[in-house]
Amino acid sequence: MSGAALAVVVVVVFLLALYLLQRYGDLRRQQRMVLLGTLLSWYLCFLIVFILPLDVSTTIYKQCILDNANHPAPVTQARHTNQTNSRSSVYPTVSLPKVCEEPWSYIPDGILPVLWRVVYWTSQFLTWLLLPFMQSYSRSGSFSRVGKIKTALIENAIYYGTYLLIFISLLVYVAAHPQWQLTWRELQTIGITAANTWGLFLLVLLLGYGLVEIPRSYWLSSSHGYLLAKTYFKAAKMATEKASAEENLADVMEEVAGVHESVKYNHCLRKCVDTIITKCPTEYQEEMGRNVESSCGEHNALPTKRGLNKLHKKVISAVQRHGQTQVQWSILLDQAFHLEDVAESQSSPVRHFNHSFPSVRHHSWIYRFIYTPTVEWYWECVFRQGFYRLLAVLLCLLSATVVWSECTFFSTHPVLSLFAVFVQMAEKQHNYICIEMACFVSILFLCVCVYSTVFRIRVFNYYYLVPHHQTDAYSLQFSGMLFCRLTPPLCLNFLGLIHMDSAISHQDRIQTSYTSIMGSMHVLYFISDGFYIYYPMLVLLLCFATFYSLGSRCLNLLGFHQYITDDHLTSDLVDEGRELIRRERRLKQKAEDGENRRWAWRERYGVQGATGRTRAGYIQLKDNQNSPVTEINNSVIPFIRRDEEEEEQRCLLQDNSSDERSPNRRSTGGRYRSLSPSRTGIFDDVR
Fold first, then answer.
1. Where do the record's region annotations for Disordered lie (predicted)?
2. Are strands 672-675 and 660-661 parallel, antiparallel or unpaired?
3. Separation between Cα atoms, residue 329 and residue 231, nearest integer Å
């Protein structure tokens, strides 16, 4: 098994990173360099986390060999005594060191140091140099590669200058101490220490939030009433964001239309205008073409090249944000409908789960043979609540273990860190599988607490990871930067929790290959003996702040609405979201009923040439225009559509909200409305 475990981990981690990138990014439409940089940064960070337990078990095995090599005499004499007289022994059997068995995942010497150097320095190059440059490059509105590179360099000049100033300050500090010699190794250690200090500062903040929020979210998610109320709250917020994104897109498209009319086809800037128009939605491109043909020769002021760059950037951002809100709104509606179906199934005497609007996936073989409506009813109505609460209790125990260990890991005599106790107990028994499992579960839980917070946080519209292929390039690269900066200090903190870092535990034992690459932190003793030991204790205060939702309450006071159960504004938003979901359910039910009536007419009169559409409405029919029944259908369907349109108009007047309307119309209240159907082919890959 030598090296086989390492190869399996490398492949599995790559597949995990690729799956996450496919879920959040768009592999077909986004730039290849953006996807490659994000994939590489995620892959390297996950690789560190998964290989570190193998490094720990290999180091413990080497320590066992070293301990046995330092006590050769008792072992030899004990074996001779046991051969001559099995009933007596000169030396006590307790003092005999046990035979060191090679771990099943043992990695040969020389592999891990090279691997850690490549992984660590590549990730640091990505997070501090390449990804910030690619962020500015992807957001630039320039129309050429040279222009994008120039913009990226200008935007990152202050960014790189700050890092250079910090590094020079550390060099001056080290040079002020004559007992230290500035070798290349020490310069590397200074740079690594500076990067890990920045990462540890952010790591503790994210960890303190995740240690409380993850167990609490699972406990609260066991209640369908809580989930439904929170979904209503999200619907009210998402409706506002959706209307704002639609209005912003309409404003930007009006500006593009003005530029399109003012810049003629023989102008030198026409190529830039055509590039901007290709980034606009299809319906707006068609509308601009009709407006140009019917224009009366009105001339607007000609834009400048810099103005077109800004407009190009605004178009990309507005279209991306509009697409995100549309997809999120659709997903949120499906979640709300499902939770309402669960509430109805719980009160139903029939143990059979009924979906109000079955989707295509409900007709797959998994739902027909394995996850049947009966199995789904038992899971949603019986077992789900107990399973989530049991999982929440286990996660709560892990969180308490992490908090206790973070506050006591500096004590080596006695050993107070629970993670160190578990590892040392397994080390005495030479149980390498238990060592690796304990390390893997511990570091995996730490990563889940930190990484889940990275996936949840939202910095206005600049950083927001949206699933279903809707995350923009800037957010993908920003997440890669955060992962590369958080993972090394997280791993060092974990090694300190299990007393495998001599800079913290001050023990004379073999260091892991990962710690040897990090270098000796004693070069900057005020960081290794102060900040690295006492700053992680702050996680206790952050856990209390998260438990009492102090951060959410502060954001709520600043106008960023958060879901707080005892807040009046939250109750109002829940009621508003309930009405929105009720209206959307009514509109969707009308559309389904209209499709069913049309299907019934076609089935009754035997329309030929149809591709077939089931009563659930998943396969579209194509009318045969040569059929004698066409006239009947054409005379009946308009009445159905007229009734539907009149009822829809009455609903719109009652709800005073926006649905699907034309891209160039606005309501009297100034809200953007669109009566045209949504684009096809843009979000076809969303499920």
1. 648-687
2. parallel
3. 11
The verdict on residue 137 lying in a domain is: yes
Rounded CA-CA distance 239/242 in Å is 5
Let me know the angle formed at the C-alpha of 250 by 32 and 645, rounded to the nearest 5 degrees.
110
Residues 6 or more apart whose Cβ sits within 8 Å of residue 358: 616
Dihedral sign for Cα atoms in the order 232, 234, 236, 239: negative
For residue 331, which amino acid is it? I
Beta bridge partners of 463: 459
Residue 660 has a CB neighbour count (10 Å cut-off) of 12
Mean pLDDT within 292-313 = 76
Local structure of residue 300 (DSSP, 8 states): P
For residues 351 and 326, is the Cβ–Cβ distance under 8 A?
A: no
**CA end-to-end span of the chain:** 41
Q: Report which of 199, 185, 204 is spatially closest to residue 522, judged by C-alpha positions.
A: 185
Provide the domain count of the chain: 1
Note whether residue 237 is domain-resident: no
The single-letter DSSP state of residue 361 is: G
Q: What b/e string do you get for 58-88 counting C-beta neighbours within 10 Å, with b at 16 or more?
A: bbbbbbbeeeeeeeeeeeeebeeebeeeeee
Average pLDDT, the chain: 80
Asked whether residue 309 is assigned to any structural domain, the reply reads: no
8-state DSSP, 412: B
CB-side exposure of 150: number of CA atoms within 13 Å?
8
Neighbour-count burial for 316-351, b at 16+ CB within 10 Å, e otherwise? bbbbbbbbbbbbbbebbbebbbbbbbbeebeeeeee
Average pLDDT over residues 280-287: 88
pLDDT value, residue 497: 92
Q: Tell me, what's the pLDDT at 188?
A: 79
| Sign of the Cα pseudo-torsion (69, 73, 76, 81, in order) | negative
pLDDT band at 72 (very low <50, low <70, confident <90, very high): low
Considering the domain boundaries, does residue 219 fall inside one? yes
Distances (CA, A) of 447 to 283, 332, 442: 44, 27, 9
Asked if 474 and 135 touch (Cβ cutoff 8 Å), the reply is yes
Task: State CA 315 to chain mean position distance.
Answer: 25
What whole-number distance in Å separates Cα of residue 632 and Cα of residue 612? Answer: 19
Look at residue 50 and tell me whether its pLDDT is greater than 90.
yes
Per-residue confidence band for 335, with pLDDT thresholds at 50, 70 and 90? very high
SS3 665: strand
Confidence band of 640 (pLDDT split at 50, 70, 90) = very low
Buried b / exposed e across 609-646, counting CB within 10 Å, b at 16+?
ebeebeebbeeebebeeebebeeebeeeeeeeeeebee
* Cα–Cα nearest to 484, from 125, 185, 167, 69: 125
| Separation CA 660–CA 242 (nearest Å) | 12
Instruction: Supply the range of the domain harboring residue 449.
Output: 2-71+99-224+369-569
Give kind and range of the element (H or E) at residue 324.
Answer: helix 305-346
Mean pLDDT of 462-491: 90
pLDDT of residue 389: 96
What pLDDT score was predicted for residue 525? 65
* pLDDT digit string, tens, across residues 526-584: 676 677 788 889 999 999 999 998 988 898 888 888 888 888 888 999 999 999 999 99
Q: Model confidence over 587-636: pLDDT tens digits?
A: 999 988 888 888 888 888 865 444 444 444 433 333 444 443 343 344 43
